[in-house]
């Protein structure tokens, strides 16, 4: 007699199931969207929260780290909107077109929707859900290789932003998707950005919330870049010190298109930031830079998957982590080259700088190559501050903390310099300086 082993559901998994049943009737969308939600939640229910025995989550045991499931966030009231209006000070004066989502709900009165540039269309994800547009649903359909965390987002997402840029349109003003949390609750938000062929834009995505507030965020941004399109995406995670953030970017890059990515993580108790880049068209280019600046007992996991599916593709990935106290940084990077992706050129490098004996940097770079005419490579280094260089600076009258800050800036500054937009780059460098100034 064979016994079937059934894993015991965790408190968080049981809570998520209850929330899906309770919230289902109130979530936007007609029959097609409702079917997508049910299918996605079934996938989550079958697998459960990812844990360390799942290879892609070996360093971030979400089942253990997520002790419970917070209640779903209520619609933002006047107090929440007032708090959100004060968020985002790091980019003051840069003239972004700001689109604000508060506690998982798009808030038009806090957003800049006036005088949209030619070819730019903006709507809420809730309205796209409600329209039950089958084309829209096709874009949002989870696939077999989506993680269960992404499936959970599809099941429970209530709102977000849909940004569409028509073919040939050029938008010089950065578009800022600002996600702000104000309450100890769970938010599930999904957004979509479509960049038409020969179009160009800069998209900034930021996440922030209050300190000492154990809120939970599950955020997904899907992006499609048309042939010969060009987009720079900057993501800044500045969540509160008790927050749990699970975020993902899913980008499909067309022929001869250029996609540039920069990610900065400075906040959050537990962060899992996934990037899946599919170079689907011939001659597609992806350039990815990222940095994690961690202290205390923070845990930040950046997981990157670059999928070369067409010939003559090029990708460059550089990630750096500065880790202090008992914090832990994780970088998992995989370059996959499909059989048809001949003449691919892909390179990946990850470096960690440990500022204490108890800091940790885990790195797992991988190559999966199924073509025979490619140039691919990866590397990783981990180390501490150079004592000789530090002594050299101190011998010239520079105080110890300032000497350390100069060496850290020299280590991590390379990835910041990759940001093309001058104003955004300077704002990010200022954020890095503020983090260094806040060290004990």
Shape: globular
Instruction: Tell me the span between the first and last alpha carbons.
Output: 61 Å
Average pLDDT, to the nearest integer?
A: 92
State the helix count: 10
Q: Helices and strands, in N-to-C order? A: HHHHEEEHHHEEEEEEEEEEEEEEEEHHH
* Largest sheet properties: 10 strands, mixed
Please tally the β strands and state the result: 19
Radius of gyration: 21 Å
Percent in helix: 10-25%
Structural class by SSE content = alpha/beta
User: Strand arrangement, largest sheet?
Assistant: 2-1-5-7-9-11-13-15-17-19
Percentage of β-strand residues: 35-45%
Low-confidence spans = none
Oligomeric state, counting identical vs distinct chains: single chain
Q: What does the model show?
A:
Among the domains are: 7-234 and 249-260, no CATH class; 386-409 and 424-440, no CATH class. The protein has a 10-stranded mixed beta sheet with strand order 2-1-5-7-9-11-13-15-17-19, with helices on one face. Strands 3-4-6-8-10-12-14-16-18 form a 9-stranded mixed beta sheet. The protein is α/β, with parallel strands linked by helices. The protein has 10 helices and 19 strands. The longest helix has 17 residues, at 31-47. β1 (97-102) and β2 (105-106) form a beta hairpin. It has helices at 11-23, 31-47, 62-65, 78-85, 125-131, 134-140, 148-156, 387-395, 400-416, 422-437, and strands at residues 97-102, 105-106, 120-124, 161-165, 175-180, 186-195, 200-208, 216-225, 230-238, 244-253, 258-265, 270-279, 285-294, 299-308, 314-323, 328-337, 345-354, 360-369, 375-384. The radius of gyration is 21 Å and the shape is globular. The model has no long low-confidence stretch (mean pLDDT 92).
């Amino acid at each position: 007699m064979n016994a079937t082993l059934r894993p015991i559901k965790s408190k968080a998994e049981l809570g998520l199931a209850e929330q899906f049943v309770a919230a289902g009737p109130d979530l936007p969308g007609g029959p097609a969207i409702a079917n997508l939600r049910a299918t996605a939640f079934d996938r989550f229910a079958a697998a459960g929260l990812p844990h360390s025995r799942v290879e892609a989550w070996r360093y971030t045991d979400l089942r253990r780290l997520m002790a419970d499931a917070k209640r779903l966030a209520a619609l933002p009231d006047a107090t929440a909107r007032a708090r959100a209006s004060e968020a985002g000070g790091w980019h003051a004066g840069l003239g972004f077109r700001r689109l604000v989502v508060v506690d998982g709900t798009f808030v038009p009165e806090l957003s800049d929707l006036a005088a949209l540039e030619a070819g730019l269309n903006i709507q809420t994800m809730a309205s796209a859900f409600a329209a039950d547009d089958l084309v829209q649903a096709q874009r949002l359909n989870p696939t077999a290789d989506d993680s269960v965390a992404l499936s959970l987002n599809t099941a429970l997402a209530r709102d977000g932003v849909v940004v569409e840029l028509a073919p040939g349109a050029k938008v010089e003003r950065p578009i800022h998707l600002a996600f702000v949390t104000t309450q100890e609750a769970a938010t599930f938000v999904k957004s979509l950005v479509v960049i038409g062929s020969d179009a160009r834009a800069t998209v900034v995505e930021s996440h922030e919330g209050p300190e000492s507030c154990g809120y939970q965020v599950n955020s997904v941004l899907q992006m499609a870049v048309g042939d010969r399109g060009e987009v720079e995406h900057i993501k800044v995670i500045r969540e509160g010190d008790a927050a749990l953030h699970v975020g993902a970017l899913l980008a499909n890059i067309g022929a001869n298109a250029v996609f540039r990515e920069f990610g900065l993580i400075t906040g959050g108790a537990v962060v899992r930031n996934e990037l899946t880049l599919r170079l689907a068209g011939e001659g597609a280019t992806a350039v990815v830079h990222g940095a994690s600046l961690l202290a205390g007992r923070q845990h930040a996991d950046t997981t990157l998957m670059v999928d070369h599916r067409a010939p003559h593709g090029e990708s460059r990935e550089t990630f750096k982590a500065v880790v202090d106290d008992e914090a832990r940084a994780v970088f998992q990077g995989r370059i996959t080259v499909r059989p048809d992706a001949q003449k691919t050129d892909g390179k990946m490098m990850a470096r960690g700088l440990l500022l204490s004996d108890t800091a940790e940097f885990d790195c797992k770079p991988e190559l999966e190559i199924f073509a025979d005419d490619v140039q691919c490579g990866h590397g990783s280094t981990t180390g501490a501050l150079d004592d000789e260089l530090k002594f050299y600076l101190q011998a010239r009258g520079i105080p110890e903390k300032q000497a350390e800050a100069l060496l850290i800036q020299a280590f991590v500054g390379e990835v910041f310099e990759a940001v093309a937009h001058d104003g955004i780059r300077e704002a990010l460098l200022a954020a890095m300086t503020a983090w260094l100034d806040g060290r004990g």
